[in-house]
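Incident review: delayed structure delivery

Summary: a single-chain prediction request sat in the queue longer than the usual turnaround. Root cause was a stuck worker, restarted by the on-call engineer. No data loss occurred. The affected request and its eventual output are reproduced below so the record is complete for anyone auditing the incident later.

Affected input:
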Amino acid sequence: MKSFASFTARLVSVLLAVLFVLTLPAAFLAYDAGQLVFSPSRMTALLEDAVLQSKLVPLGLAWYAQTTAASIPKDAYTPDYATIVSFPSTQDWRDLRQIAITDEMLLEWVDATTNGAYAWLDNEEARPRVTWILQPLQQHLQSGRGEQALQIVYDALPPCSQEQIADFKQRQSAAPSGVEVPYNPCRFPAPWESDQYNDYLTSVEEMVAAIPPVLELVSTLAPDTPESTFLALKGSLRTARTVSRWGWVVPLLLLWLIAALRVRNLPALGLWWGIPLVLGGAATLILFLAVPPVARPWIDVAVATWPRELALEVRLFLDKVIRIIVSPLMWQGALSAGLGLLGILGGFFAGRRKARNASME
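Output delivered after worker restart:
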């Protein structure tokens, strides 16, 4: 009976050790992810660097402009906005961003977004309240920056071909009296040049005048999303935050249970703690190497339908986020393995000393 109890205790201890090896790297990863994702200051700094230093904002502007323009119903009296905004290059969109949106505006919007998101995570409201103040943007564009931005788009238009000019003349002659006929998506020569530019400028002024002073971001982007979806998301995020903060308790508890079942002396401590720590540290180092290449295909799938340049920029940003999260795993794994190795060596030498003392007696 005693041998059966000993065998059972050993078997349970082995299973607990296996669980420890599996949970240690998971606990480290959860903790490291939480230190970034659930830290308002770190996330704000990361996003501020992204919007100022990367091409995410210019390429996002290009995508938004092209998507919005493509959604405008086309008819004989509506300019082909979708084609017009397709001509500016990536550098044109970067220049346009610098002219139209100041760094201070971007930083204020990032702060408003992160503050609203983290406040929502801690309150009981169903929807996040993320408010962007757009009045400074409107005033900035009305001060002449809007026309400078238009100039970039206008200069990107290719010169009109004779066929395009002939098409415009034909549509103009067929239009009812007093009806404005939109210009073809190209740059017309004189005598139409100034009139075409003024038409575009009038459209820009109307769009700027229509900018609301305040934008409720979530209500605008997800007006039809039910509150239950946001509440479910909040619950999942809160659970993830709790796991990231307290997940490390699980491997510690497993070590304590192993000690309670099997550890009665230093040699046993070196065996039953040292080996799991070495293996858990090795598993953590493997996780450090495995996460980035495993995550990349999932990122590729998520952005597969996006414009190529924007998808590439998002991949670079998410790669950076993943590197920040997993980088502590290297020293955490090495430290765990080192402690385990010290435990094994300490237990070995303690066992030898015990055996030597026993033989001398």
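Verification: DSSP finds 14 helices and two strands in the chain.
Action items: add queue-age alerting; document worker restart procedure.
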